[in-house]
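Q: Predict the assembly, please.
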Amino acid sequence: MTSIPMPEEGTLTTKPVVDETNYLKSAYGIKSWLLTQDHKRIAIMYMIGIGIAFLLGGLFALAVRLELWTPTKTIVEAATYNKLFTLHGAIMTFLVLVPSIPAILGNFVLPMMLGAKDVAFPKLNLLSFYLWLLGAIGFVVVLFAGDLDTGWTFYAPYSIRTQTAVALAATGAFILGFSSILTGLNFMVTIHKMRAKTMGWFRMPLLLWGLYATSVIQIVATPVIGITVGMLFLEKLFHIGFFDPKLGGDPVLFEHFFWFYSHPVVYVMILPAMGVISEIITAMSRKHIFGYTFIAFSSIAIALFGFLVWGHHMFVSGQSSLMSTIFSLLTFSVSIPSAIKVFNWLATMYKGSISLAPPMLFAMGFLFLFGIGGLTGLFLGTLNTDVHLHDTYFIVAHFHYTMMGSALIGLIGGLFFYWPKIFGRMYSHLLGTISFILIFVGFNLTFIPQFLMGSMGMPRRYYNYPPEFQAYHQWSTVGSFVLAAGLFTALWCFIHSLFRGEKAPDNPWGAVTLDWKTSSPPHHHNFDIVPPVTDPYDMDDVYWDEESKGYISRSQQAALQELAAGVSGTQEKNS
Amino acid sequence: MSQAIDSIHGDQGQLSHEPHVAHHFESAEQQYDSAKLGMWVFLVTEILFFSGLFCVYAVYRSLHPEVFLYAHQWLDKGLGALNTVVLIISSFTMAWAVRNAQLGQKKALMINLTLTLVCAGTFMGIKAKEYSQKFEHGTTWGASFHPHDNAFGETHDGGELKKEDMPPNTQLFFSIYFALTGLHGLHVLIGMGLILWLLVRAAKGTFGPEYFTPVDIVGLYWHLVDLIWIFLFPLLYLIH
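A: Predicted assembly structure:
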């Protein structure tokens, strides 16, 4: 999403001064980034890497939309079109959405929210990043050296028969799976073992509950996709025959394995976003979060229910009607914890003193888009409507509302929220607001026409289409370019902030969680001294300080004064 | 003030740390607990990794029970049982090695690690013999399954395998056999590498009562590898 000129800037203009109180200046040179074990620097490397992948996946999406401007060939051949939508899906899922919030924001704030110096396994954290990079390189090689035309789902038996680079893409997905597992493992152990001594489970910020639920899914579901793409790999190389009907195998078995992972993984994308939204809404409404325990447990509930609904992808794949009925029922049950969250967020905003700064705009956009994404999911969970809507643009629009409209909007909102903490710079609220409006309008303009034409029967992934759909496709294409303009505005806003942004206060939004009680940007070891653990949403703990243009925590101030006065016993309280 | 603070939480804190404790941990205990929990979580992912193949086994065994009944007779129960015993012994020596590390018995630790390594090597040797038999008979996976005439006739436990009795889709059994034992064998090889690494570190005297985490968690991994074989043996070799 952005480039980080800070360390180089230091080396070029002034003599580098090692400053332990700022992780961006605690060491210099390219090696101090590439070999770092600091979770904050790893987060920034992920930010750059995932940003580039997002740009690439986004350009493919624009090319796909441009091709669909006319009912026949517009800019590319059919084979290229297949490659474009396949790589768009594969890159956005495996390289962008799955790692996004945990790897960028999670890595950055998780240890700080716990009052820890780092994640439990810093070397493993760095290894996760390089595995991600290796997987990404695999996809880039596929892009330049081979073809891939299976769609991101790699369905057998077509994926076995096609001559394109399925084996290489499967290897890439396998490696990316490892990266995801290691991140999940790291976060889970860190949350269990590295919380500040007085931080019980119910004093954790809700983002951590979201990340914990995410790591459960990463740990339980990801190995299954690992072995599934492993089997696909053996299928391609050795014709082992598990999924090949010619050799006695069953292609639907592949679909079962694939969705056993790939359904839960949509919650890997959405749960961290929900966590970020919880943090933004409470801070920006200046109100204690409503229904803390309900939001916390609904994250866990979503993670668990998410494992029991994969069959709803196979309602028309010859699954028995009894199984389909059970899966349909379970699918509806997932809407309960999701709705609990939405109602609690709305109740948090009710009578709050809401600030409409960019992070809150994105959070409110999330509520709206996630509402649409979630409610249209009910159409697809219903057996008889799904038969009509399956494999149409309706489902494309539905999952873009949850993935792009919710998960990525959550990421962008989170970036606007944590940006001052990460880089110590404020950004232009005007640019942020413009980017939100463009993204929100562009997004709806892209996908509402897709709902309409999907419900009229326009199938997904088609290169040509009947002329009566052309108007919808053109509106959608126009929308996608407005959306792109919005995303570039956000990028411009961030880059502008790095060079021209005002210095950020330690706590610009008045959030109460520990990550806001350190300097902006944080100390190399996160804290000078770990602040006392309070209720993470007790808004009375902070007050506005006109001088520093930020919020100050009363409990932290009291603890520091006590320490300065040399009162004995402070050590235990604060460690 | 910042001086006082640094001495508690800053870089200087590192000096007061015990050796082997990384800077971001507060105590050796926290570090040990984290490593152990991390390993257990990793083992969960390993089990789920294998469970994909166990699932394939369950699906095809329920669809084609006759294939499993027929084809398992090609496997040598004696060698399978021997390998089971070898691995159980290796788990015992591994567990003993953990105890040796905890008590700081360097010599005994090295002996037990070596014994574990020898057992693992024996297992792989026996496995290699079984594999080569399969290749000689042409009883391999999927598309490459073309049993030669020498594959039929008397079986290891005295029965007789007739070519005309062979059910369709018999290749699925060997696809599953090679996928499961192959993945397991890969894990044994990784385990051997890890034990060798422990042996080198043990020789340097790294382990003792205050630091034995690597021995402990490699031990956990090794027991899992052993346990998976204990499920593979009856599932593949002992079918009625």
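The domain at 40-262 of chain A is CATH 1.20.210.10 (Cytochrome C Oxidase; Chain A). Residues 1-13 of chain A have pLDDT under 50 and may be disordered.
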